[in-house]
């Protein structure tokens, strides 16, 4: 897609966002190239959107937009070049495990088996930093809905189900997803250039521990 077809918009004083009509794996491939250039503070790929944060003391907004536009003018690398494969250990000890099983008309054993057997793809990251929305959930669990009253604080590493997806909380925070388990996999490393372990397009499997 030519660069002038991308509408780049400011997102606060130190970020830009752009809609991209490409598969999420292709958008993540573009994000990986931008990270490698080294001038962006952070680059986040989601379904249909790329958001980039920059340091306005080093790179002005106009210059950042120009660099982003130039990057978008280049063909994206093959998506497979940046795909991750991540295996997360999981304990099925979530406080909502029984309620989710009843909602899905399954035994807890069947629920655990169904969730662990699936291979997931990170569709995008949102609503709290690093929260991974995972496609690939067993269809029998597709009718599980969010909690009527969200929790004020959900621990990091919590694994939930809602709206036809599974989700993983990289950081503690509020949340309304029914929780079925916990992973001790390292999802956030503040010392790393890219602190979150999961990216859009990554393949994720859960391994009961």
Automatic annotation (TrEMBL):
GO MF, any single term: ATP binding
Keyword check for Nucleotide-binding: yes
Keyword Magnesium: no
InterPro entries given in the database record: CT_C_D, Cyclophilin-like_dom_sf, PxpB
Domain Carboxyltransferase: 6-198
Keywords: ATP-binding, Hydrolase, Nucleotide-binding
Listed PANTHER family: 5-OXOPROLINASE SUBUNIT B
Protein name according to UniProt: KipI family sensor histidine kinase inhibitor
Upper classification of the organism: Bacteria, Pseudomonadati, Pseudomonadota, Alphaproteobacteria, Parvularculales
């Amino acid at each position: 897609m030519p660069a002038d077809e991308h509408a780049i918009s400011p997102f606060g004083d130190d970020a830009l966002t752009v809609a991209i009509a490409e598969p999420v794996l292709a958008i993540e491939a573009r994000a990986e190239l931008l990270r490698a250039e080294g001038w962006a503070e952070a680059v986040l790929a989601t379904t249909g959107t790329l958001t980039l944060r920059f340091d306005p003391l080093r790179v002005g907004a106009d210059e950042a937009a120009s660099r982003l536009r130039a990057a978008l003018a280049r063909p994206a690398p093959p998506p497979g070049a940046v795909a991750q494969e991540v295996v997360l250990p999981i304990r099925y000890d979530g406080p909502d495990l029984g309620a989710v099983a009843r909602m899905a008309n399954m035994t807890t054993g069947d629920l655990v088996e169904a969730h662990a057997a699936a291979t997931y793809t990170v569709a995008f990251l949102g609503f709290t930093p690093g929260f991974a929305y995972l496609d690939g959930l067993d269809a029998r669990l597709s009718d599980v809905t969010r909690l009527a009253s969200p929790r004020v604080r959900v621990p990091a590493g919590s694994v939930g189900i809602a709206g036809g997806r599974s989700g993983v909380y990289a950081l503690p925070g509020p949340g309304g997803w029914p929780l079925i388990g916990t992973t001790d996999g390292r999802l956030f490393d503040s010392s790393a250039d890219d602190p979150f372990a999961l990216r859009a397009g990554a393949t994720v499997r859960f391994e009961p521990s």
